[in-house]
Amino acid sequence: MLQGEIVGCRRCPRLVEWRERVATQKRAAYADEEYWGRPVPGFGDPKARLVVVGLAPAAHGANRTGRMFTGDRSGDWLFRALFRSGFASQPESVSRDDGLHLRGAWVTAAVRCAPPDNKPTTGERDNCVPWLDAELELIGGAEVIVCLGGLSWGVMHRLLLASGTTVPRPRPAFGHGVESATEGPLLIASYHPSQQNTFTGRLTEEMLDAIFEEARNQLDLG
After folding, report:
1. Per-residue model confidence as pLDDT tens digits over 142-176
2. What angle do CA 156, 122, 187 make, to 5 degrees?
């Protein structure tokens, strides 16, 4: 089963060491919690038409909770936006068993292990691409892919190109709201809801809402 294969991955020694060290040392606020400390698979509706691709699990977010974007401030922003746009059953995600359900959406990331300083190496990124490819193949019906951040924007174009899908050449430069019409799914770029973007005002909730409103329009969901 794909989820089990992802969780058991140990391809990147640096990431294995880091994710496990963080899970042992923990943050003081979560000292009493058992950290996940393993690769994090995507989750959501297996018949999703919308896929959201982030960068990687946060060290004390998904690396702690075991569910992508769950338990950190980036996730707070993302799930509020997904809730407002009708893709999520509730506006917050704090644990794997908090009752959150995604409707017609799948949330995943380009890299499955928490990287030091949120910066995976090129090799680590490339090691993870097959997991993203396998998830998309399993879903089968993705029509719109929202890429949170420049890394996932680049990864998705390379992945589609490698799979034989015609993509725009040259690749459209990353920017919030930029769209890339491929032979397959439509790619929509968004600034990542990281604190460096949300605290500085580079990304506002209205800007993120507009991304998912556009996704709904493209999917003809009104």
Report:
1. 999 999 999 999 999 999 999 999 999 999 999 99
2. 10
Per the CB < 8 A criterion, the answer to whether 8 and 1 are in contact is no
Compute how many other C-beta atoms are within 10 angstroms of the C-beta atom of residue 126. Answer: 15
Q: How many of the other CB atoms lie within 10 Å of CB of 57? A: 31
- Tell me which H or E stretch contains 96: none
pTM given for the model: 0.97
Task: Pick one of 3.40.640.10, 3.40.470.10, 3.40.50.300, 3.30.720.120 as the CATH number of 2-218.
Answer: 3.40.470.10
Helix (H, G, I), strand (E, B) or coil at 105: strand
Q: How many CA within 13 A on the CB side of residue 95?
A: 7
Cis amide linkage into residue 170, ω under 30° from 0: yes
